[in-house]
Write a structure and sequence with these properties.
Structural class: alpha+beta
CATH superfamily of the largest domain: Butyryl-CoA Dehydrogenase, subunit A, domain 3
Radius of gyration: 22 Å
Helix content: 40-55%
Largest sheet: 4 strands, mixed
Strand content: 5-15%
Bound molecules: flavin-adenine dinucleotide
Distance between the termini: 44 Å
Order of helices and strands: HHHHHEEEEEEEEHHEEHHHHH
Length: 403
């Protein structure tokens, strides 16, 4: 693969960067992670920024023009993400929309569903959440028990989801439920698009180890949804859920934000001391920084490789697990290293006047634990890589359960 940008791709970067810098200059301060109480302000910022991207033709770079996308290339999409993430220009509250819901609606939705949902996703007016996990169905998603029962032209939904990120601000939800309890568990599932303002939905935020309430419990109590809100056919839930997870494992990897993290670690190493000298002069610290720099660059090339599969119009495959396992474990190690660099200061959180960079790394360190769980745990990614990429035999415990 040729990693050099073509003249057209370089021209796209040259056109986009001044536009982005202009918007940032005009908008002023971006609300940050520590303004936990300013969540509404952060979400409003996201919606406004996304609308600007949409109006300027920079939303949904690879998505079809007829649904509000740009009809551009994956490399252009990569350039745009990289430039936005490098500047932390906008906190993306709609990763689930762009990374999952959009992909499966374009792949499995009717023309009416694409018309209704894709432009509203791209222009920032609708944020999405993902109702998959339940108290007794996480890694084993097919064991889920939230039930949808057909009643005339509607389905009536009862049950509970958990760890539903962004549900407290989401306008729409991709929801997988059981429509047939009498067939093998993978076959009895169906996939719906749910308006989060429908009566019968109760969202209860859960506070994470970071102190943020990013995810929620979501209860469904006789919630009615019309048949037209189903994606695909009844019984297609497993197929579409698996496609969603494949999209998710590609989507959550963000080279630009890791580039920013590694640049930040170099700065941190210049500003803290080791044995009375700037830590960056310590050979062991230099070696670790060099290693992380290499790993972030490897991530970039892996991302390009996997994107080239999408470029050929293919649905993402199980090899997305390699990327997800790689970046989530790498990020955990990078944030642990930041704690090591800060020395005794690492114990101070945002709010302490002595905390370095107002506790930014403490937040990132605590949040990085969740990276190895969300979108499928590291153990599950290893199983997928072993079985579905390398073709190894199924893990003994699961094979025994299935018998
Ligand atoms: C920050 C965050 C955000 C999330 N957002 C969402 C969301 O928006 N929507 C949503 O639906 N879900 C979301 N989740 C839930 C996430 O998908 C699940 O937590 C994850 O799939 C694991 O499921 P579980 O928590 O039930 O753990 P379990 O499946 O009970 O696993 C417990 C432990 O057992 C291990 N394990 C399980 N099965 C196997 C096996 N076969 N082989 C080896 N080890 C195994 C796991 O690796 C794990 O260590 C989120 C989670 C986090 C942390």
């Amino acid at each position: 693969m040729d990693f050099n940008l073509s003249p057209e791709e370089e021209a796209f970067r040259q056109e986009f960067v001044p536009w982005l810098e202009g918007v940032i200059a005009e908008k002023g301060k971006i609300p940050t992670f520590k303004d936990a109480e300013a969540l509404d302000e952060r979400v409003a910022w996201y919606r406004e920024m996304q609308k600007k991207l949409f109006d300027a033709g920079y939303a949904g770079i690879t998505w079809p023009k007829e649904y509000g996308g740009r009809g551009g290339t994956l490399i252009e999409s990569f350039i745009l993400d990289e430039e936005i993430q490098k500047r932390a220009a906008v906190e993306n509250f709609n990763g689930i929309g762009f990374g999952m819901a959009g992909g499966v609606i374009l792949a499995f939705g009717t023309d009416e569903q694409k018309d209704r949902y894709i432009p509203a996703m791209l222009n920032g007016s609708e944020i999405w959440c993902q109702g998959f996990s339940e108290p007794n169905a996480g890694s084993d998603l097919a064991a889920l028990s939230t039930r949808a029962v057909k009643d005339g032209d509607d389905y009536v939904i009862n049950g509970q989801k958990v760890w539903t990120s962004m549900a407290q601000m989401a306008d729409q939800c991709i929801l997988v439920v059981r429509t047939d309890p009498d067939v093998p568990k993978h076959k009895g599932l169906s996939f719906f698009i749910i308006d989060m303002k429908t009566p019968g939905i109760d969202v209860r935020p859960l506070v994470q180890i970071t102190g943020d309430a990013e995810f929620n419990e979501v209860y469904f109590d006789d919630m009615r949804v019309p048949r037209t809100q189903m994606l695909g056919e009844e019984g297609d839930g497993w197929k579409i859920s698996i496609a969603t997870l494949m999209f998710e494992r590609y989507a959550v990897s963000q080279y630009g934000s890791f580039r920013r993290s590694i640049d930040g670690l170099f700065e941190l190493a210049k500003n803290v001391t080791r044995n009375g000298r700037p830590a960056i002069e310590d050979p062991v610290i230099r070696q670790k920084l060099g290693q992380f720099h290499i790993e972030v660059e490897i991530l970039k090339h892996n991302t390009m490789r996997s994107r080239s599969k999408l470029l050929k119009g293919e649905v993402p495959g199980p090899e997305g697990s390699i990327e997800k396992l790689y970046w989530s474990e790498m990020n955990k190690a990078m944030q642990e290293f930041a704690m090591e660099l800060e020395g005794p200061y690492h114990q101070l959180m945002s709010g302490s006047k002595w905390a370095l960079q107002d506790g930014m790394y403490q937040f990132a360190f605590l949040r990085s634990r969740g990276n190895t769980i969300e979108a499928g745990t590291s153990e599950i990614q290893k199983n997928i890589i072993g079985e579905r990429v390398l073709g190894l035999p199924k893990d003994a415990a699961r094979a025994a359960v299935k018998k």
